[in-house]
Amino acid sequence: MGFVVFVISACSNGNEGDQSADEASVWEQIQEEGKLVVATSGTLYPTSYYEEGSDTVTGYEVEVVREMGKRLDLEVEFEEMGFDGMLTSINSGKVDLAANDITNTEEREEKFTFSEPIKYSYGTAIVRKDDLSGIKSLDDLDGKKAAGASTTIYMEVARENGAEEVIYDNATNEQYLRDVSTGRTDIILNDYYLQTLALAAFPDLNITIHPDIEYYPNNQAVVMKKDSGELESKVNETLKEMKDDGTLKELSEKFFNGADVSVEPDLDIEE
Questions:
Q1: Contact assessment for residue 255 and residue 61, using Cβ atoms and an 8 Å cutoff
Q2: Gap between the Cα atoms of 18 and 24, Å rounded
Q3: Residues 180, 173: Cα–Cα separation, whole Å
Q4: Nearest residue to 233 via CA among 59, 68, 111
Q5: Of 116, 125, 110, 91, which is closest to residue 216 (Cα–Cα)?
Q6: Which residue of 18, 47, 229, 243 has the lowest C-beta tally within 10 Å?
Q7: Which residues pair with 123 in a beta bridge?
């Protein structure tokens, strides 16, 4: 996946000290402003969404970040955007963090800093219930229409297996799911927990999780700019406190129907 990365070159021999100063200044600036600006979608249930009748965004990662901000004595301001713009917004300085079920990968780690994991999962596939969209395994995706955002890990899996991409920009779960149900698209590759909850929310649609497709064990984390220095330390220290005192477990069980996604599952899936 390609993301825009801005590289700052130092001309003096003291560039290591300059880098340390830059790292410290990020955290100092956040403290001076008294807030964390966080990218999220507002459309990804149950990670980041709006409850019916509410004008306040909520969800597992939204509430994790809110609690983190409270413990750091910072206000949290959410900037809502499509997934494809989140990481670019980190490097441009528009936001301090991104929290939207973003998977930690080696490629992304080269360009961004990830916190300690706050969620563990694996990939599954939503297909039509009556015929499984004519798909038996990931090997059958050639020519099938896969729905999603262009820069997600799951769309990369679809692409690598020959699927035709159908790209959405910050669409709701209902739009994704209904398009599979009606045949406009054939498959949605995504996270197991997100997909089970999405299915439960729309029981009348002609969709199901494919019984034979499990792949890509992974973890998700809060994302920040590369070499974030003290900001990274503060984020990880606070998340560790929240895991140790049971806050992550409590929030997970609230948003994931009793499941504790903060603990790595015991799975026999090839990476």
A1: no
A2: 10
A3: 11
A4: 68
A5: 125
A6: 18
A7: 191, 215
Helix (H) or strand (E) holding 49: strand 49-50
| Burial letters 182-205, b for 16+ CB under 10 A, else e | eeebbbbbbbbbbbbbbbeeeeeb
pLDDT in tens, 211-241: 999 999 999 999 999 989 999 999 999 999 9
Q: Specify whether the CB–CB gap between 241 and 249 falls below 8 A.
A: no
| pLDDT digit string, tens, across residues 70-90 | 999 999 999 999 988 999 999
Distance from C-alpha of 44 to C-alpha of 265, rounded to nearest angstrom: 22
Tokens, residue 203: 């029981």
Distance CA 87, CA 92 (A): 9
Given a contact cutoff of 8 angstroms between Cβ atoms, the answer to whether 144 and 187 are in contact is yes
At 219 the three-state DSSP class reads: strand
Residue type, 111: K
Pairs from 166-175 (Cβ < 8 Å, separation ≥ 24) = 169/82, 169/84, 170/41, 170/42, 170/43, 170/80, 170/81, 170/82, 170/83, 171/43, 172/43, 173/43, 173/44, 173/45, 173/198, 173/201, 173/202, 174/202
Q: Tally the C-alpha atoms within 13 A of residue 67's C-alpha that lie toward its C-beta.
A: 20
Q: Which two tokens stand for residue 26?
A: 């990020």
CA-closest candidate to residue 197, choices 103, 108, 80, 119 = 119
Provide the token pair at 56.
């306040």
Q: State the maximum Cα–Cα separation within the chain, in Å, rounded to a whole number.
A: 66
Phi, psi of 65 (to 5 degrees): -70, -40
